[in-house]
Amino acid sequence: MKAYHAGWVIYYCELSGVAAFAVTGTLMAGRKSLDWFGVITISLVTALGGGALRDVLMAHYPIEWVSNENGFLVGVSASLGTMIWARTLKTFNDRVLLVADAFGLAVFTVRGTDMALQQNLPPSIAVIMGVATAVAGGVMRDVLCNEVPLVFKREVYASISILGAVAYITLLDLQISLEVASAIAIAFVFVSRIAAIRWKWKLPRFDVVD
């Protein structure tokens, strides 16, 4: 497996993903009526938590958001902007939260997978790192807000992230350029997640009968 290096598409999409996840964290915290400090904390945990976990698992130090403040600044700005927007409209829109979450899932799936490939990790581990990057922040957000994490419900969520990571690696192995491969994989995960929400796709449940 050759080493890949993140291009400008992934970098700017990653910042957009940070903003998107910060929005979801802010809206979730707003529903719990937290103060402004609590809201920003939840938004940053959501936006940066998955990447931090990925870096720890890969022993990639310093952790990315510590060494590069852009993600932190984008997250704080997105959180403050969302608080102003939500206070002005006097409403929290479920659709905005779900769309923002879908975009963040798509972007961080590709980003986490790409970083693992840069470290010359096996493809299977790269998929795991992609999924961890994409879903861990949301899990932390939901746990801190006393909600059942979305990834543990019957929602088609983490499985879409897995397919997106596999698609990204496959496209790169087919010698498709990084920018095109990342754009296709991001679009695939985003559209698939929106479709799952729209048509209420569910995973089968496992029930043990006594």
UniProtKB/TrEMBL annotation:
The chain crosses the membrane at residues 6-27, 34-52, 96-113, 125-144, 156-174, 180-196. Signal peptide: none annotated. This is Trimeric intracellular cation channel family protein. PANTHER family: INNER MEMBRANE PROTEIN (PTHR30506), UPF0126 INNER MEMBRANE PROTEIN YADS-RELATED (PTHR30506:SF3). Residues 12-84, 99-171 form the Glycine transporter domain. Belongs to the UPF0126 family. The keyword Transmembrane helix applies. It is a multi-pass membrane protein. It is found in: Cell membrane. InterPro entries: Gly_transporter. Keywords: Cell membrane, Membrane, Transmembrane, Transmembrane helix. It holds the Pfam family Gly_transporter.
